[in-house]
């Protein structure tokens, strides 16, 4: 199997723009707005809850920006409050008050494991090898399932409570962070993660897969019942992750660029488009514009803090993606 190595050398912090310094304005403002003193990442657009995705984004950003103190706080809170399942995966939502909160969101676990790998391998911040290996084993055992169209290929299951049978697998295409799958697969010897990355890259070449949620059946890709069929709040991360993975020439970026360009207001991007490409929602928030910039192959719009957890987080992630994936 051909493996593409996308591990790139990172520049020294002295060479980074001001926002990307460990105490740069945008990062400091992000922490002030969304990172509690105890390490909890607060989603202020979602009733102030915390979730595995947000904790993982915080870990990735803290490592990428050289902020060990923030990284350690975030990981300590995550272990104490979300690492409460017996299988090594995180509960997806806090406060954990019942079975629904204990469910898994596999992108949070994937990105957390990747952040732990980067912290160990690239920053030398303590050896997290045992923990990331445990997470990867759980991802392989619980979250990788056969593709009904080609049973020898593996799909990334977004949550353990969602349908995954021989006739139907519900998939969130924005959970495919190809670079994370590859680097974790290579670091832990988990060939299943490498196979999932390769198959996911092919999956995302199909325009029918470029939605928030899809249903993969033996007959092909269909709309996911009772879930968003738009290219919307989830799917807009697809070009971010592909660019970060060194796949700037992937067909999904051109598709995404067309969708973003459906905005009708100046300096806005279409954040939600229906399956026909009709714009349903648009925004001028820097984070969404930054992702659209990556899809177009140009430097991302600079962070403009104060536009909400999701937009502000995407703005920072896009800057790191440009630095590492270009």
In short:
The protein has 326 residues and is α+β, with helices and mostly antiparallel strands.
Q: Could you please describe the fold and organization of this structure?
A:
The protein has a domain at 230-326. The strands form four sheets. The chain has a three-stranded antiparallel sheet with strand order 5-6-7, with no helix packed on it. It has helices spanning 25-34, 52-64, 68-81, 106-123, 129-143, 178-188, 191-203, 237-244, 251-260, 286-295, 309-325, and strands spanning 50-51, 93-94, 144-147, 150-156, 169-171, 214-217, 220-223, 269-273, 279-283. Helices cover 43% and strands 11% of the residues. The protein has 326 residues and is α+β, with helices and mostly antiparallel strands. It has eleven helices and nine strands.
Q: What is the radius of gyration computed over CA atoms, rounded to a whole number of angstroms?
A: 18 Å
Tell me the distance between the termini. Answer: 25 Å
Strand content range: 5-15%
Low-confidence stretches: 1-19
The protein's oligomeric status is single chain
Number of helices: 11
Based on DSSP secondary structure assignment, what is the total number of beta strands? Answer: 9
Strand order of the largest sheet: 5-6-7
Classify the secondary structure makeup into a structural class.
alpha+beta
Largest sheet: 3 strands, antiparallel
Shape: globular
Question: What level of helicity do the residues show?
Answer: 40-55%
Report the order of strands and helices.
HEHHEHHEEEHHEEHHEEHH
Quote the average pLDDT: 93
EC number: 3.2.1.4
GO molecular function: cellulase activity
Organism: Ponticoccus litoralis
Signal peptide: 1-20
């Amino acid at each position: 199997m051909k493996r593409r190595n996308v591990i790139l050398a990172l520049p020294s912090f002295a060479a980074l723009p001001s926002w990307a310094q460990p105490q740069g304005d945008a990062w400091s403002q992000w922490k002030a707005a969304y990172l509690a003193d105890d390490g909890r990442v607060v989603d202020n657009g979602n009733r102030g809850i915390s979730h595995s995705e947000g904790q993982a984004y915080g870990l990735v950003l803290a490592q990428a920006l050289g902020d060990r103190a923030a990284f350690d706080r975030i990981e300590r809170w995550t272990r104490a409050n979300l690492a409460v399942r017996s299988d090594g995966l995180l509960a997806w939502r806090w406060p954990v008050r019942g079975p629904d909160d204990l469910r898994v969101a596999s992108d949070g676990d994937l990105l957390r494991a990747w952040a732990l790998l980067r912290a160990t391998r690239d920053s030398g911040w303590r050896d997290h090898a045992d923990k990331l290996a445990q997470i990867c084993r759980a991802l392989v055992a619980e979250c990788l399932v056969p593709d009904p169209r080609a049973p020898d290929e593996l799909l990334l299951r977004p949550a353990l409570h969602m349908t995954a049978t021989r006739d139907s697998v519900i998939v969130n295409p924005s959970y495919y962070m190809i670079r994370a799958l590859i680097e974790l697969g290579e670091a832990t010897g988990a060939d299943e993660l490498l196979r999932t990355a390769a198959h996911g890259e092919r999956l995302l070449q199909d325009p029918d897969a470029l939605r928030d949620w899809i249903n993969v059946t033996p007959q092909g890709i269909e709309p996911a019942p009772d879930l968003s069929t738009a290219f919307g709040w989830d799917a807009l991360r697809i070009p971010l992750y592909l660019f970060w993975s060194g796949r700037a020439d992937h067909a999904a970026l051109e598709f995404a660029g067309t969708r973003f360009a459906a905005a009708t207001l100046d300096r806005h991007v279409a954040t939600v488009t229906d399956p026909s490409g009709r714009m349903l929602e648009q925004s001028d928030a820097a984070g969404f514009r930054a992702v659209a910039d990556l899809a177009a192959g140009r430097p991302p719009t600079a962070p403009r803090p104060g536009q909400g957890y999701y937009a502000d987080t995407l703005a920072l992630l896009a800057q790191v993606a440009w630095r590492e994936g270009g």
